[in-house]
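Consortium newsletter contribution from the modelling node. Members have asked for a concrete example of what our holo predictions look like. Here is one, prepared for the FE2/S2 (inorganic) cluster complex that several groups have been discussing at recent meetings.
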Amino acid sequence: MQLTLNVNGEARSVEVDEDTPLLWVIRDDLALTGTKFGCGIAQCGACTVHVDGQAVRACSFPATAVMESSIVYGLTAAFLGRVSVANGAIQEGNFDTYKMLSLAQMPSIQTVIIESDPNKPGGIGEPDLPPIAPALTNAIFAATGKRLRSLPLSAHGIEPA
Ligand code: FES
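And here is the predicted structure:
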C-alpha cells in the first residue's frame, strides 16, 4: 500500500505492507535512522516517536495504527472537543481535564487503505482526521434530518456510545 506520512512537517510517501511496524517505515523506507531499534517489544523506548501528539513505541505500532489514532482524535473532537479559556489561558492542561474517547466509547474500526491518485491529496495519518466530524454530522443529518452546525456533538445531547 502507498503510505503518506507527515514527517517533521514534510509529506513523505512510501510503499509498504500495512502491517509493517512504523519503526521500519521510518528507518528503512524513509532512511531516518535517528529513531533507534532496541528491544523490539515496546519496553525500552528507543524507538519512541510522536504520532498526532502522542508518544508511541514505533517498533510495535503498525502503520495502520497511524490512521486509527487519527480516527480516535477525530471522533473525540466531534463528540467532546471543547476547551475553556480563563484569564487568557486554556484551562485544560492535559488529558485528565481534556477528555479523550475511552476504549469503551470507541466504535469498532476496520482500516482498509486503498490506492489513490498520487497527484491528489491523500495518505494516512493527518489527512484522514479533518473529514471525520463532517462525515459524522452528515450521517446524523441523513439519519435524522437534523443539521448540526456546531461541535461538540455532546453539546447537542449526542454522546458517544
Ligand atoms: S525498540 Fe524498544 S520500545 Fe521499541
